[in-house]
Sequence to fold (223 residues):
Amino acid sequence: MRYLVAGGITWRAMPADFPAWDRVRAFLRRWRDNGLAPEFHDRLRGRVREAAGRSPEPSAGVIDAQSVKGAASVPAAARGFDGGKKINGCKRHIVVDTLGLLLAVKVTAAPVTDRDAGQAVMVRLHERHWRVTRVWADGGYTGQLVDFTREVLRVALTVVRRSDNTSGFTVLPKRWLVERTFGWLMHSRRLARDYERRTDTSEAVIRWAMSMVMSRRLARRAR
Fold:
């Protein structure tokens, strides 16, 4: 799985000295359907946080979304056109901790707004990480989502706005953390586009890509 995600190859291009490609795909599906991919990923994240001198469970996070082009094999129900980014594909909504490690992910069609998908991903975050009490976001998450997270989830959603007086590229407090994570994920060529037919498969692939980032970090510390 790491080879496929990192190299961005097709299933049938699996090297001959690896298991048969259909068995590897069955392995991915089994882990996806039984919830093993999130469990494996979350255990790695806890190890990385402990190695950094942090508690295994975070208390704060940052949320953002990324639109990516969809391959021709992706069905119409799982893709769409993002008018703002001019991208026909999907949108990845993620929440990361203050180290940039993935906490929650939801993949939707590109036209789904940040506010609509944000509510679903915040619910996922709360279910798995109930200690998180504060999340930073950009201006796309204003409105009813702020009230929902405060009143229902008891999480303070703080919107970090860009100043009207600034021009060009500006590093915004906290928001750069999640942008850095997107940069890490894009090192995996399988994520350069959305190739998956199902959104839950896309989410599993994102967790596999992030697990490679974390395992390499742990390996460097062990030397």
Summary: Helices lie at 2-7, 21-33, 36-51, 114-128, 144-151, 175-185, 199-222.
